[in-house]
Design a protein that fits this description.
This is AB hydrolase-1 domain-containing protein. It comes from Setaria italica (Foxtail millet). InterPro entries: AB_hydrolase_1, AB_hydrolase_fold, Epox_hydrolase-like. It contains 15 helices and 10 strands. 42% of the residues lie in helices and 11% in strands. It has a domain of 242 residues: Rossmann fold. The strands form 2 sheets. An 8-stranded mixed sheet has the order 3-4-6-5-7-8-9-10, sandwiched between helices. The chain has a two-stranded antiparallel ribbon with strand order 1-2. By secondary structure, it is of the alpha/beta class.
């Protein structure tokens, strides 16, 4: 014991072991230190060069799509100088308004050049812009002021709940609030409220992608408030037209080919066969009803399980992972030429990720969509397109990888009298990627519908 505690002279050089290879020295140093070194650097997040010690208690910072998640702010703290907020049922909706007499056009000089001189007369109707899933007011920034000059009226774009800088309201299925702020019904109510906010009786609704669903639902809720619809890359599934009609025609033909001699008395075999067919039909009806009940029960259980998962901590982790891995990739893929997506565009789409509670709000919006789609009482918009009677323009890019151009064409064919326009060399975001062509198409449509007789003749000739 005394030998272990007392210091001993260093051994002679002749008795020292051979020097360890150079590559093992850092490893031995770490083992002697007993604690692994933390790390962080600009090039490799999580790595710190040897010799640099992290402060005690400091943990690795989280980020989603390059946005630091440890320093989130209230949405209003991220607002721009021209931002405004309008409260509905306790939700503060972020919006921007452009007037036709605005003099500041420094940010829209390239787009304004496409607005014709005749545009100064305008159509005299305000325009409401409804963004798509994952987007915000930013999506309309390049066309808002030019559209205001075309209309000679105000143009308003607002962030729907769960997107942009609109406040993140808390919500659960048993909440006492009058209306789920993340539901389609709330977005429709907000759309109509903004028409009142502009002091107008009617407005032109311009929807993009999932925003087209809001525009169409707002029309069905109050058709007298909607002067026209402009559906840009509409995320509305439109079934092929005429399939059901042709099938019905074949059935009628088959019925006509069945012989039916009313003068011939029914035979015993015919009576037995008829009774057997009725019994089979009755049994089939009972089985069909049982299957529908089982299907509804399974669907209800599935929806409840999915909602419970999305509202758990695992759901929040999942949405953060998806946005981190695919958020920016989705923006680039929405363009015809992803290489032209600038840092300014990326910053515009990722800015809402700096707001506190963004992941919970996005999950609640997703849950609301799932519940709406599973509702047996809700008629799908795709089955009501033929009921639209106001002027409609459908616009799409020829290389839309999110919502194919052929689906947009079907939507146009399903709406009586709808116009259909395709912008060449364009993806899912015509208003951002091809603003000049987009403005030209919209202006031509509005002047054809609402212009003076001379303007209508001119647009028809063009």
């Amino acid at each position: 014991m005394q030998m272990l505690l007392s210091p001993s002279p260093p051994p002679a050089a002749a008795h020292l072991p051979a020097a360890a290879p150079a590559w093992t020295q850092p490893l031995r140093a770490r083992r002697l230190a007993g604690v692994p070194q933390a790390s962080a650097s600009a090039e490799f997040p999580g790595f710190v060069p040897d010799g640099v010690q992290m402060p005690p208690g400091r943990r690795r910072r989280r980020s989603v799509a390059g946005i630091d998640q440890d320093e989130l702010l209230d949405p209003e703290a991220l607002a721009d100088p021209d931002s405004s907020f309008f409260e509905i049922n306790g939700v503060r909706l972020h919006h921007k308004v452009c007037s036709h007499d605005d003099e500041d056009s420094s940010s829209d000089q390239s787009s304004d050049a496409t607005v014709s001189e005749a545009g100064r007369s305008g159509i005299g109707l305000p325009i409401l812009l409804l963004h798509g899933f994952g987007a915000s007011v930013f999506s309309w920034s390049r066309v808002m002021r030019p559209l205001a000059r075309i209309a000679a009226a105000k143009v308003l774009a607002f962030d729907r709940p769960a997107f942009g800088l609109t406040s993140r309201a808390s919500w659960s299925g048993d909440d006492s609030k009058p209306l789920n702020p993340y539901s389609m019904a709330f977005s429709v109510m907000a759309t109509l409220a903004f028409i009142d906010y502009l002091g107008a009786e009617k407005a032109v609704l311009v929807g993009h992608s999932a925003g087209c669903l809001v525009a169409v639902d707002a029309y069905f809720e109050a058709p007298e408030r909607v002067a026209a619809l402009v559906l840009v890359a509409p995320a509305i599934f439109a079934p092929r037209k005429g399939v059901k009609d042709s099938a019905t025609g074949e059935q009628e033909a088959q019925k006509q080919n069945v012989p039916n001699d009313e003068n011939s008395p029914p035979t015993l075999f015919a009576r037995i066969w008829g009774a057997f067919l009725k019994l089979c039909k009755h049994i089939a009806g009972l089985v069909s009803k049982m299957m529908m009940v089982i299907r509804d029960v399974l669907r209800s259980l599935y929806v409840k399980a999915l909602v419970a998962f999305l509202r758990s901590s695992l759901g929040a982790m999942l949405v953060r992972w998806v946005m981190d891995k695919f958020g920016i990739l989705g923006v680039r893929n929405a363009w015809y030429d992803p290489s032209k997506v600038t840092d300014h565009v990326i910053q515009g789409y990722t800015k809402p990720l700096r707001s506190r509670g963004w992941e919970t709000a996005l999950l609640e919006h997703t849950i609301s969509m799932i519940i709406d789609s599973a509702s047996a009482t809700r008629v799908p918009v795709s089955k009501r397109l033929s009921e639209i009677s106001c002027p409609v323009l459908v616009v799409t890019g020829d290389t839309d990888r999110i919502v194919p151009a052929w689906n947009a064409e079907r939507v146009a064919h399903a709406i009586p009298g709808a116009r259909f326009e395709v912008i060449k060399g364009c993806g899912h975001l015509p208003q951002e990627e091809r603003p000049e062509e987009f403005l030209s198409v919209v202006e031509r449509f509005l002047r054809t519908v609402f212009g003076t007789p001379n303007e209508r003749v001119f647009q028809a000739a063009v």
